[in-house]
Design a protein that fits this description.
With 88 residues, the protein is of the alpha+beta class. It has one domain. The protein is globular, with a radius of gyration of 12 Å. The N terminus is likely disordered.
């Protein structure tokens, strides 16, 4: 995953951003963040962390536990740009 928001996202990254936008994802915050999609652990354990580090997902709530995953403002803008170009 690129460290800047100007890089191209993978299809998996885009699919997960769409799932987050559709409110189908949760993040379990603790020793390491874990992304859940439709109630199941995401098969790519690193993708949620990459998207958070890239600033596309908002940080989860305080403390440990499961929180609804949310797009950051940068994530919303990136998803909108990709959809306008027709790559999403």
């Amino acid at each position: 995953m690129p460290s800047t928001l100007t890089e191209v996202l993978s299809r998996r990254d885009l699919a997960l951003l769409h799932a987050v936008a559709e409110r189908r994802c949760e993040i379990q915050h603790g020793r390491g963040s874990v992304l859940f999609v439709d109630g199941r652990v995401c098969c790519d354990a690193e993708v949620g962390r990459r998207l958070m580090r890239s600033g596309l997902l908002a940080q989860p709530g305080l403390g440990t536990g499961r929180w609804p995953a949310r797009l950051s403002e940068a994530g919303k803008a990136k998803l909108a740009r990709v959809e306008r170009v027709g790559q999403g």
